[in-house]
Amino acid sequence: MKKYSIYSFFTLTFLIASSCSTNPVTGKKDVAFISENQEIAMGQEADPQIVAQFGLYEDPQLQRFINDKGQKMAAVSHRNNIKYEFKIVDSPVLNAFAVPGGYVYFTRGIMAHFNNEAQFAGVLGHEIGHIAARHTVQQQSKATLAQGGLLLGMILSPTIAQYGETAMQGLGLLFLKFGRDAERESDKLGVEYSTKIGYDAKEMADFFLTLQRQSEDTGAEPIPSFLSTHPNPGDRYQTVTQLAVEEQKKQNLTNAQINRNNYLKMIDGLIYGEDPKQGFVENSTFYHPELKFQFAIPSGWGHQNSPQQVQMGPKDGRAMMALTLAPGANLEEAAQQLLKQYGLQAVEAKQVTVNGLPALAMVADQQPQQQQQQQQQPPLRTLTYLIQYGGNIYSLMGITTANDFNNYFQLFSNTMQSFKQLTDPDKINRQPERIKIVTINKSTTLANALSSNNVPSNRMNELAILNGMELNDQVQSGTMIKVIGKK
C-alpha cells in the first residue's frame, strides 16, 4: 500500500453490440461484440486505473527500454494501426498482461527474471499477439477483475470463495484468462514478432522453463505466475523452439540477437520482491514504514499488498478483510461515503477508540438491490473500523456471508483493534532487496559462484531460478550473474 493510494479500482462496464469483423491475424470473420473504437476507449479507461492501482516502477531507463522495443514490435504486428502503450508496473508478482486497445504491462517481478533481451522480447511479442489477434476483446465479456473495488468486486464475483482464493493467492493484476488455442496463437505471434525485430525467439522457450521452475518451487510464497494465467501445454517448450527455428529460416535471420550482458546491466539495482516502503509482513504483522502504522494478520491467512489496499483471506475463501484509505473529512462522512460506494446499509455504528486513535465501528449489510445482482448468492455482512490517524482515515473492512458473520466477528474485531502507530526504527528504516549483477572471476559452478557472493544456502535454488540456471551448471570466468543485496 503506497502513500498515494486511491480509493477504489472499479470494474469496467460496457455495452456490446454484435457485429462481424475480420480478424487481423487470421483474415477470417469473427463475431465481434466490441468495435475497435470501443476497444480503444476501454483501454484508455483501464490504463489510469491500473497505473493508480500498482504505480509505475520508477526507472526511466527501463521504461524507455520497454517502450522502445514495444513500439518497434507493434510496428511489425498485424495491428500496427492502433496506438500502443507499454509500461512497467511496480509489483513483485511475476507476470505480464495486456488489456484491450493496445496497453501492455510488465511487472518489475517478471523483469527481474529475464536473463537477456531476447527472453523479454518473446514475452513482449506474446502480449502484443493477444492484442493483435483481438483475444483481449474476445475474452473481455468473460473477464473478471482479480483485484477490484473490494466489496464491489466480491458482489460481482459468483462466490465469495473465488474472491477469497484470489486474496489468499495474492492475485493483484487485471487478468484476462485465455484458452489454449489463444495461447498457442500468441506464442506463434511472439516468435514471429520478436524474430522480425532481430531477436532469437528460442530464448522465449527457455524462459518458459524458468517460469515453470519458479511456479514449482515449493519454497516460494504462492503468488500468481505468468503460467497461471497463460496455460502451459506440455509441449509448449518444444513447440516454441521449433517455431523459432522455422521463423528464423523464413525471415533469413542469420544473426539473431540475445543481448544477455546489456540486459543484465540494465536491471542492476532493480528492486526484488516486496518493497518495504510500500508495506511488508513479518511474523503475521503488517508494517507500513512510510505511513507508520501496523496491524496483525490472522494466523493462516494469506495476504496481498498493493498501492491501493492490503487484502487478507483464508484459503477456504469464506471471508476476507481489506485495508484501504477512506475519503471523507471526518469519520461520519467517511462512513456515509463507504456505505454509498459499496451499496451497503448500516445495521449499527458506534464511536470507539483503537489504541488511543479515534475510530468508528460499523456493521453493515448488502443492500437488497445488490443482493439481487448476485443471483441467489448468500447475502453479505460487513464489519468496518474507520480509524483516524496521521491525517488519513483508514478503513479496515471484514466481509463474509450473513450466516458466517458471527463466526468471524471476533477475528475481524481483533485484527481491526490491533491497528496502531508504528514506532520500531528497524521496521521504519527497512530497505528493499535489489538485483545485483556481479562478474565471475574464475570458472566454477553456479552454486560456488553464489556461495562466494554470500548467498545463503536456503536461497540457492531461488537464485538459480532467477539466473535461469541449475546449481551444478558451469559458469565461465567473465560471466555475469544475478545475486541479491541491499544498496
Structure write-up:
With 487 residues, this protein is α+β, with helices and mostly antiparallel strands. It has helices at residues 36-54, 60-75, 108-113, 117-132, 135-140, 151-156, 160-169, 180-196, 202-216, 226-229, 236-250, 260-266, 331-342, 368-373, 405-417, 425-428, 446-452, 460-466, and strands at 19-22, 29-32, 85-89, 96-99, 103-107, 271-272, 280-282, 285-288, 293-296, 302-305, 309-313, 319-325, 344-354, 357-366, 380-389, 392-401, 420-421, 433-439, 444-445, 474-475, 480-485. The strands form 6 sheets. The chain has a 7-stranded antiparallel beta sheet with strand order 10-11-12-16-15-14-13, sandwiched between helices. Strand 7 (280-282) and strand 8 form a beta hairpin. Helix 2 packs across helix 4, helix 4 crosses helix 8 (180-196) and helix 8 packs parallel to helix 11 (236-250). The longest helix has 19 residues, at 36-54.
Shape: globular
Oligomer: single chain
Count of β-strands: 21
Ends distance: 22 Å
Strand residue percentage: 15-25%
Quick check: average pLDDT? 83
Strand order of the largest sheet: 10-11-12-16-15-14-13
Q: Helical proportion?
A: 25-40%
How is the main sheet built?
Answer: 7 strands, antiparallel
> Total helix count?
18
Show unreliable segments.
4-20, 141-176, 218-229
Structural class: alpha+beta
User: Cα-atom Rg, whole angstroms?
Assistant: 24 Å
